[in-house]
Write a structure and sequence with these properties.
Blueprint (H helix, E strand, L loop, with lengths): L8 E5 L3 H13 L3 E5 L2 H10 L4 E5 L7 H11 L4 E6 L3 H10 L3 E5 L3 H15 L9 E3 L2 E4 L4 E4 L2 E3 L3 H12 L5 E2 H8 L9 H15 L9 E4 L3 E4 L2
Parallel strand pairs: 1-2, 1-3, 3-4, 4-5
Antiparallel strand pairs: 6-7, 7-8, 8-9, 10-12, 11-12
Helix pairs in contact: 1-5, 2-3, 3-4, 6-8, 7-8
Length: 232
């Protein structure tokens, strides 16, 4: 007899009941189990006792704000996080990405678009098939099956989106990818929701984690005016 698959848990943190309700409705249609929280302090208490598979997180919250919650999530692991931000909060969006958010959606947003992003992020954060062999580039090792990265034998903690970006670039050494190509392949969102700065921030985070001197990166090289390439 087959064992039923474990439910996928998504935490939705937003102080607007209507937003939580609409988001939950769309995600539940995809078979996800949704937990709703309306303020930052309650979210932190919930996270002390539960580990969701993904978090949808508003930046502006009563009590602890979304960036504080994001820091707490990142301190305890690599659960994928999608930020909800207002159009005027560009600084918060960039800071959120620098703190480890995997994606963001600008309010007002399409719940269908958000549901697509959730599905894609959950799919990519799952284990890759075991047929993907470990890639080694000198001191850097990338294991797609385990979604693990090491440098000089030391494990490097990457968020799901950081791993996806590194893996994509490393699969095609020396090939230059434009920011737009990376957005289309990794973020899967409609053009009006895409911001090249998202890629720039993720590359910066990868360099901070992989390189001894991020100002002179060893692995991810900028092709000025075009995009990025992986140097084996």
């Amino acid at each position: 007899m087959q064992t039923a698959a474990a439910p996928v848990d998504v935490l939705v943190v937003d102080d607007e009941p209507m937003v939580r309700e609409v988001v939950a409705r769309y995600l539940e249609r995809d078979g996800l189990r949704v937990h709703e929280v309306g303020d930052g302090d309650a979210a932190l208490r919930w996270l002390e006792h539960h580990r969701p598979d993904l978090v949808v997180l508003d930046v502006m919250l009563p009590g602890s704000d979304g960036l504080t919650i994001l820091r707490a999530v990142r301190a305890s692991g690599n659960v994928p996080v999608i930020l909800l931000t207002a159009r005027t909060e560009e600084v918060d969006r960039v800071l959120g990405l620098e703190l480890g958010a995997d994606d963001y959606v600008v309010k007002p947003f399409s719940p269908r678009e958000l549901a697509v992003r959730v599905r894609n992020l959950l799919r990519r954060s799952a284990h890759t098939e075991d047929t993907d062999a470990t890639m080694r580039f000198g001191s850097l090792s990338i294991d797609p099956a385990a979604r693990e990265v090491t440098v000089d034998g030391t494990a490097v903690q990457l968020t799901p989106k950081e791993f996806d970006l590194l893996h994509l670039l490393a699969r095609s050494p020396r090939r230059v990818f434009s920011r737009r190509q990376l957005l289309e392949q990794l973020w899967d969102s409609a053009p009006e929701y895409q911001d090249p700065a998202t890629v720039t921030v993720h590359v910066g985070r990868l360099r901070q984690k992989l390189d001894r001197d991020p100002q002179h990166p060893r692995w991810i090289i900028t092709a000025w005016g075009v995009g990025y390439r992986f140097e084996p």
